[in-house]
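Notes to self, HAD-IB family hydrolase:
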Amino acid sequence: MAALGWFTRRRQPATERSVLAGEASAEAARKSSAETPAPQAPAEPEFPVVGDERAAAFFDLDNTVMQGAALFHFGRGLYKRHFFRKRELARFAWQQTWFRMAGVEDPAHMEDVRSSALSIVKGHRVSELMSIGEEIYDEYMADRIWPGTRALAQAHLDAGQRVWLVTAAPVETATIIARRLGLTGALGTVAESVGGIYTGRLVGEPLHGPAKAEAVRALAGAEGLDLTRCAAYSDSANDIPMLSIVGHPYAVNPDTRLRRHAREHGWRLRDYRTGRKAAKIGIPAAAGVGAVAGGTAAAVALHRRRR
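result:
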């Protein structure tokens, strides 16, 4: 018993010392935590970079900058001005629906759309359609610009960078829109004209898919741009080639395929649609023929080939 009493007396002070040590350690940890700031995620670098003259931004047009397709709106304006009949309007509307619902681009079908559209403007003066294009912008397009996308473009302009539209729509149609928005310029599909009159033929093919990427590369080379410092914006998976060649790709109002691709590759997303409207607009659209019943005006304001 004496031995047990000795053991008990020795153990108690040791236990008290352990408690004291634990409390002191905990207090020191609390003080250390309070004095040392919690680690923060690295700040996102400023973008766009102010004063970077080798950077620029490239924006798709249909459903990226503008709600709907530019050619469809121009087609409405041409129909109003009796450029074609109701039967042709119905045909273009059906072609638009087929492209949007199928989400694919059959070469023969695309050629049919282009031929129909070009036949409408064949023989018309380029200057006439340019003038009409200005009127149609005010009538049907000015109120369809996405404010969010326009703000993105303005941020690049405010940073001293150039901003270009890149679209399968006629280059002159795109140029009208770019000028009205205060942008630098536009890349678009080119149609042939001789003596200022449309011949009804394209120069090459519509600016679509891989062709957009090639156009951006060519412009970057001519303008001394560094594509790794540039940004591109689009709603369509058809524009993945263009988005892939820049250092800052953005999916804006993306269709299902582009949204999935953007998430897989860590691209940034911006969606200015809401609710049911977003779901409707998200149906894959074929931009190759200028999207939309816009086949109606597929060459309405196409860039004339100077000879």
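- The longest helix spans residues 2-35.
- Strands lie at 56-59, 162-170, 185-189, 191-194, 197-202, 231-234, 248-252, 268-270.
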